[in-house]
TrEMBL record:
Residues 352-372 have a biased composition (Acidic residues). Residues 1-21 form the signal peptide. Keywords: Signal. The keyword Signal applies. InterPro entries: FecR (IPR006860). Residues 73-157 form the FecR protein domain. Residues 332-383 are annotated as: Disordered. This is FecR domain-containing protein.
Length: 383
């Protein structure tokens, strides 16, 4: 009996160890820094930098604020303004690092280090199901019962019980919990377009903000891929660069040091399109405006000249961006009102999509899983 009791005790210790609850930590707050957390006992306190959070804590991020939260090394969630998020699970399960977040409303950008794919187990619960991944950058948007998952790199595998083979979601595609569609296709629907544009700008801000973050798994390649996705969608929709200009501006506002990089990525992606020069000019004007706003004392003319040259060089001579035209466009827009991310209107133009400064991540191969219990749809990770 004593031996049996000892065995049971040891088994209990092993189970407790393999299911070890952890804490999340707030590693950065930008903008107004207006956010609060409601604890499991019902008390509500302001959210602060370096604060540790536990399972069942409910986070509310107010307008003008962005919150960066780390659950494990290489697992950073960016909670956008006007979002409500419940920390459902943060725990070590054997060798797995499990994070499950319940997004009640708003937007979150998941930034997952691809090098930790073998141990990471990350998911965002929505009213329609769970969007999960092991190594990628993707955005989840919840608006009531509407859900949008936007992936900028890697492959997602959607499995429907009634279909013989899964549906693969390639980079640059989105899903509303059903079959995937291209970002450009989603932009044809005004309601989806507005949400997708916000999601892409949020992802650009997060990626640019995390480039210099230790152990984030984010690199310049992540940002380049994201900009390329936006540029491709702009090219396919014929929006004259509105989407990619807004995304490039958001990245630059978050981290001005990436200005030339995002211009080169965008122009390289559209260099062979019929309206490449118009798109490039739109992008350069938008990035110039964001860069000069984020860097007090900088010269609009000098910045426009530098970025115009970078655009022309990146195109291999197929694009012509006139720096004087860019300078005039930026100067004319100095007194123009800002357009908020959640504005009910269209995708951002060269004068839109600029946000407060932060830092940026890399996008490697994506493995995303979405479970949709209400529709009996399951999305499993690709291999």
């Amino acid at each position: 009996m004593k031996l049996r009791a000892l065995t049971l005790l040891l088994a209990a210790v092993v189970v407790a160890t393999s299911l070890s609850a952890q804490t999340a930590k707030i590693i950065r707050m930008t903008g107004e820094q207006a956010a609060q957390v409601t604890k499991a006992d019902g008390t509500t306190v302001p959210l602060t930098l370096n604060q540790e959070l536990a399972e069942n804590d409910l986070i509310e991020v107010m307008a003008g604020t962005r919150v960066f939260m780390r659950t494990f090394a290489g697992t950073i969630t960016v909670i956008e303004e006007n979002s409500i998020l419940l920390i459902e699970e943060v725990r070590q399960v054997g060798e797995r690092e499990r994070t499950l977040l319940d997004l009640k409303q708003g937007n979150v950008v998941a930034n997952l280090d691809p090098d930790k794919r073998s141990t990471n187990d990350y998911g965002v619960k929505t009213p329609r199901g769970v969007a999960a991944a092991r190594g990628t950058n993707y955005t989840v948007t919840v608006d009531g019962m509407d859900v949008l998952v936007t992936v900028t790199n890697g492959t997602v595998e959607l499995s429907f019980p009634e279909l013989p083979t899964p549906i693969m979601i390639e980079p640059g595609n989105v899903s509303t919990g059903t079959a995937a569609q291209s970002l450009s296709s989603a932009m044809s629907d005004p309601a989806t377009a507005a949400k997708a544009a916000v999601a892409m700008r949020a992802a650009a801000t997060a990626v640019a903000s995390l480039i210099n973050e230790p152990n984030s798994g984010v690199t310049s390649a992540t940002l380049n891929q994201l900009i390329t996705v936006a540029a491709t969608a702009s090219n396919e929709t014929g929006d004259n660069g509105s989407l990619v200009a807004g995304v490039a501006a958001a990245a630059t506002a978050a981290n001005p040091s990436v200005a030339e990089e995002v211009v080169q990525s965008a122009v390289s992606a559209v260099a062979n399109s019929g309206n490449a020069s118009a798109v490039a000019t739109n992008v350069v004007a938008s990035v110039t405006r964001a860069a000069t706003r984020a860097t007090p004392g900088s010269s609009v003319a000098d910045t426009a000249a530098s970025l115009s040259a970078a655009a022309n060089n990146a195109s291999g001579g197929t694009v012509t961006v006139d720096s004087d035209t860019v300078t005039d466009a930026v100067n004319e827009s100095v007194d123009a009102p800002e357009v908020p991310d959640d504005d009910a209107g269209s995708t951002p133009t060269a004068d839109e999509g600029n946000e407060g400064a932060d830092d940026g991540p890399e996008i490697d191969e994506t493995e995303v899983e979405i479970e949709v219990p209400n529709d009996n749809v399951i999305v499993s990770p690709s291999t």
